[in-house]
Specification:
alpha/beta, Rossmann fold, 6 domains, 8-stranded mixed β-sheet, 42 helices, about 45% helix, about 15% strand, elongated, SNF2_N, SNF2-like_sf, ATP binding
Length: about 1100
Amino acid sequence: MTAYPEFATNRPAPAGTGVSGETVADAIGVLLHGHADKLKEPPPLDIATAYFNLGGFGLLAEALDRVGPVRLLLGSEPSDFDVRATITPRSVREAHKGDPRVADAVQQHAQALAEDRDLVGFGREADTASEHLISWLRRGDVRVRRLTRGFLHGKAFILRDAGPAALAGSSNLTYAGLARNAELNLGVYQPSTVERVHEWFEEQWDAADDFDLAALYEARRVPHDPWHVFLRMLHALYGDGVETELLTANELGLADFQVDGVWRAERILEKRRGVIVADEVGLGKTFIAGELIRKAAIERRQKVLVVCPATLRDATWVGFLKAHTVPADVVSYEELVRDLPRAGEQGVRVQRLDQYAMVVVDEAHNLRNAVTLRGEAMRELLGGAVPKDLLLLTATPVNNSLRDLQTLVGYINPSDTAFADAGVRSVKDYFDVAMALDPDELSGQHLFELLDAIAVRRTRRFIKTQYPHATVNGKQIVFPQARVLRVDYDLEGVLPGFFDDFAHALGADRDEIGVSRGLDPDVLTMARYVPSRFQGEGEEQYQVQNAGLLQSTLLKRFESSAVAFTSTLRAMIASHDSFLAALDDGWVLRGDALRAWAASDTDDVDDVVRGLDDEARAQSEPATSYDAVALRAAVSSDRDLLARLADRTDAVDAADDPKIDALVEELAAIAAAAREEGLSVEQVRDRRKVLVFTYFADTAEHVFACLNARIKSDERLADYRGRIVQATGRDKKERQKAIVGFAPKTAGAGTEDDLFDIAVATDVLAEGVNLQQAGHIINYDLPWNPMRLVQRHGRVDRIGSEHRHIHLRCFFPDAQLEALLELEARLQRKIAQANAAFGTSAVLPGAEEVDRVISETLDEIRRLRAEETGLFDDESGAAASSEEFQRRLANAMRTPSTRSAVLGLPRGAGSGIVRGAEPGVVFCVTVADDPRPRFRYVPLERDGSSGRYVPQRVDGAPLVVDRLLACLNRADPRAPGVEAVLPEDLHEGVLDVWPTVQQHVFDDWMRQTDPATVQPVIPKVMRGAAELVRRHGLALANAQDVLVDRLSQQVEVRIQRDVRAVLREFENDPESAVRELATLADLLRLQRPQPVVPLPEIELDDVRVLAWMAVVAE
């Protein structure tokens, strides 16, 4: 006969006694099995419990399968306040009627049931257990109710028939209640007592409401709605931010998306003191900045300085601020460099630096070279005792490599650990990893987390989809569609065979690194620019790079026009003559002007070459340390070759120029189409407006002169007679006249005369000017830097354009294109190989990146040749910034049903979508109570033997991608309504791969628990400076420790050089060195680095799935 339990608790086995432990679950199992064994029919069972979870069910599952019918009563327990003794004149039920504490407890109880469900875990074992529970609950004779109008404090398991019994006490039907907690339960078997317990249960049951516990667990079943699952991922990332009301003043008539941009920029400024506004060209960055300036200058009464290209100072900024009555000082980059030493003096535009609270930099990509005078001036401006907010405006923060962006980040905060709170523990390491992942990648997708912390950046596609009804001045915004058109011409149409000879002269068929060492009269040795090769100690690296960059520039000017090419050749010939004359006098000229030119954005290489000799005389050396005979022979050979090349190109007649012929044909077609399509005189005029861009001023002058002549004689171009203007950087007044006369409706006040329909310009018109009155751009030169084309395109594809289409024509020397591209790639790779041969980093700005970006650049050129518009109009649908994700989340969560569905998803919710050629799965993972979710993407493949889905492997290890943007884009269904697709074998693969992902996240977390691992590596020079202050900085008093901390951090190489210079200069005067280091720290804005705190240790089970998305291959 079975002995039924009279007492039940959870008690572990005493150590060393041989006595077994006991659990409440064991006692209940004995009770239920005992009754089931005695009866032909399963005995009915009533259960009262406050809480329930799958773990508790699992302990009793075998016994519960043998009993029934079953009534399961759930209810909330009273809080500590409610169990305290109180005197009340009413019954308990009446006392609780309408009591808000009951409502709160009931709501918390529902949340607790859902949380217990979510604690089930993820995997095949958890799925099996859940299905067992659901099957039991749906059995037909199992009913569940929940008490919602009072508290349920009692717990009991009650058997009514064939030997009534009850086990009542403190245990909930949870794993903890049945197996862990110190519970107290008593077995009752007297019929009268059991009957009283039964009556109590009936009273509670009648007061309770039916509750679908099975549905709560059925919500774990997949697939869920893909859109809801993706929104759940986004809510984990951005929920707090998007749910904040966007309250911001709007005094400048901004569009909705611009208001949102202001709000986000303000949040970043408050936290970082700096922000990059990197919206695509034409989206109104000036207006976003204008509102931020207005708030600073008018609401906070702060002084603001705007720094911009000279072309934008009066044409854009001065007029814009005046029109909106916003006070701010505006200077060009050149004025900043010139006036900074006299800041605050009478007649100087720049006031005392500490008076400025905000600095706005327009076209901030012009600061991408940190060692230029502009860069140094900007750092001096931002330094000092008074911290300044920094607003950087640029549509192209990355021009040549990701290092461009790293430089801009350094202006915001030079500390290597400044963004540790955003998951970027070391800025340097972060960029190094991004470059290693994809050195040719220029979009910044591998820097998503950092950009999310410091940048506002939206695309046209994003504005179109997320702000479809956006208006400016009451008029709905409509963006034109970009069309790329190829214009072919024959580069050798006038000089057959010249390109092959020129390519040979540049060493196209030689593998030598650096300059040529032979004396082939038809190959340039570049000896005039690398005289160090003729010294015993060998070449100087910067001279080799100078020569390589000059060769590359020669190639580009050759493709641009014979005039530009010949001009440079003549300048080089004159420079060679000066060099030979000095050599005959016993001196070797060693100019450094080319280094400065390479670091600048100017195209005036001819002026640099002409001035090289004057500047070089100050650096000349006696020829006695050189092999003067060999040096003279090499320079003379080059001079003669340059002269032969120049004589051939001098003979080119402008009337025979194939590029001019092709340009005339395009202009004639544009004019004819405008006459045919225009509905009014004004519309015809606007439709024929054309911007002709070239990299070089002398090419612009050549094109302008040739077109003027052709327009006079070609009746097809009659509409353009007297309506052509030239705009280069050589005449600022004429440039401003050209801007306003070409597009008075958008670049002027709207009252000026419309004077011009063709503007031939260099890239002085490619930044910041509003030329959307026009709808045509012709890129006269091969697009060596595609980012320049993006800037040019942005002049016409802007808010306010009335054109349905923007036409972008690109000139290509079709027959010679691949040879040109290959020659450029070869020249650039030789520069990179020369750097590697020296075993040091590049000494010219950007020179270390040339090989990294050349393949991407050439691929982009080929895409333009194929008339693809992706460079200007990304229609891929993939998001590139967090603003896009946040706005989509915010818009979706405004719908109550969507919000409820998203937040109601169970932990571990998943789905599947069809996307791309590669199957895989994206996991959104939480770690313990850390608020920041982690994302992992695992590409899958079929196992050859089993046919199951398994992770792809790299070097024998499973491939797990942790780049946030890559994960989000793979999981993104793009829009609601996408069908969930989840084949069973792929679902099985998801379950199989989870342990790999869990371990990957766990290992990554645990690496960051080691103090030695997370602490940044401090450069030796910075450690030395900090130690110097520690020993000799007593005079600083309380500031001593602060300065030690400011110096004890990883910083840019440029800052290390500055610190090293101070240590060397004051090597014998440590007190003065300390004072100089304090001054330098202020100038460089070195801040106390954020302490990098190791993460707390966790268990593997702390890594849990929040949501997942399987990707089915198309």
